[in-house]
């Protein structure tokens, strides 16, 4: 006879009480991620014009034990504008690891999402978490994200005809730039922000972005740029070098899951995916 699970699963509802519990768990599991405040999660989970968060929490004896959240987005997928999800926040308290809670919460999330008309899930996973997504949840490993460092700016020569590209409306751009975590500027037509490394700014888009202009002082204090993402026919207007994998804290992989049952997969050479698309900064 199958033993009943001691955990109770609840669909995430982005109210004040739930956001407070979720933020506390994320900070407990990731103590260096101090940006996980109630206000930040309210922005991520409730304010997104593409829709509220889709995900589940696991409780045991009234205690929040695990959390998995995906963020609605709009993308051009194989030539059609469709709704999908970004897999982005997952945490299991150390006392409850090893019970398969991440897999259980993710599967419940994806079942709900498919019924609600979401066509795909896309995400970025590090080396440690990639096998859990690909082997246990059936995600496609599209490929590693590229990282370049240099002077100047990246440029993608491919416009139409890609398999996947996230699309940003006027409303979603305004929401994205209102992040409580980061101050964004426009540098060379690309959305940018400061990094923790002196002299280096992060370029979050390979193409133009509507947004605030960068101050001269910002550009002078951050002359070098780092770009991370996927973009076919990428060129660099200036001088750049690919960052070796051994110098990256953890190489990041782009992953994809089709929720329609059609088994669609992405061609890694036909994907546009920028740092801004997965909240890297």
Walkthrough of the structure:
It is built from six helices and 15 strands. By secondary structure, it is an alpha+beta fold. The relative contact order is 0.17. The mean pLDDT is 91.
**How would a crystallographer describe the biggest sheet?**
15 strands, mixed
Span from first to last CA? 48 Å
Number of helices: 6
Helix content: 10-25%
Low-confidence stretches: none
Overall 3D shape: globular
Strand content: 35-45%
Domain module tally? 2
| Strands, count | 15
Subunit arrangement of the protein: single chain
What structural class do helix, strand and pairing data support?
A: alpha+beta
What would a concise description of this structure say?
The chain is an alpha+beta fold and 281 residues long. The chain contains six helices and 15 strands. It has a 15-stranded mixed beta sheet that branches.
Question: How are the elements arranged and paired?
Answer:
Blueprint: E1 8-11, H1 16-29, H2 38-45, E2 54-60, E3 63-77, E4 80-92, H3 101-115, E5 120-125, H4 130-137, E6 140-144, E7 146-156, E8 164-167, H5 170-177, E9 185-187, E10 190-194, E11 200-203, H6 216-221, E12 224-230, E13 234-242, E14 253-258, E15 271-274
Parallel strand pairs: 4-5, 8-15, 11-12
Antiparallel strand pairs: 1-2, 2-3, 3-4, 3-8, 5-14, 6-14, 7-12, 7-13, 9-10, 10-11, 12-15
């Amino acid at each position: 006879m199958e033993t009943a699970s001691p955990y109770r699963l609840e669909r995430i509802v982005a109210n004040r009480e739930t956001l407070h519990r979720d933020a506390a768990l994320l900070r407990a599991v990731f103590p260096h991620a101090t940006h996980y405040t109630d206000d930040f999660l309210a922005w991520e989970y409730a304010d997104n014009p593409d829709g509220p968060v889709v995900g589940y929490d696991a409780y045991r004896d009234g205690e929040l034990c695990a959390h998995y959240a995906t963020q609605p987005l709009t993308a051009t997928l194989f030539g059609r504008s469709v709704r999908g999800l970004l897999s982005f926040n997952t945490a299991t308290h150390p006392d409850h690891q090893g019970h398969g809670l991440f897999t259980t919460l993710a599967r419940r999330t994806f079942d709900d999402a498919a019924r609600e008309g979401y066509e795909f899930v896309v995400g970025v996973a590090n080396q440690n978490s990639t096998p859990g997504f690909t082997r246990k949840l059936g995600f496609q490993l599209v490929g590693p994200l590229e990282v370049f460092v240099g002077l100047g700016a990246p440029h993608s020569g491919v416009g139409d005809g890609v398999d996947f590209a996230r699309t940003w409306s006027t409303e979603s751009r305004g929401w994205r730039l209102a992040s409580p975590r980061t101050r964004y500027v426009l540098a060379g037509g690309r959305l940018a922000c400061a990094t923790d490394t002196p002299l280096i700014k992060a370029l979050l888009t390979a193409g133009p972005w509507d947004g605030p202009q960068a101050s001269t002082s910002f550009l002078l204090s951050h002359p070098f740029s780092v770009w991370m993402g996927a973009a076919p026919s990428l060129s660099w207007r200036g001088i750049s070098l690919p960052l070796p994998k051994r110098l990256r804290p953890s190489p990041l992989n782009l992953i994809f899951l089709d929720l329609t049952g059609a088994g669609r997969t992405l061609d890694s050479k036909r994907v546009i995916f920028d740092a801004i698309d997965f909240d890297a900064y």
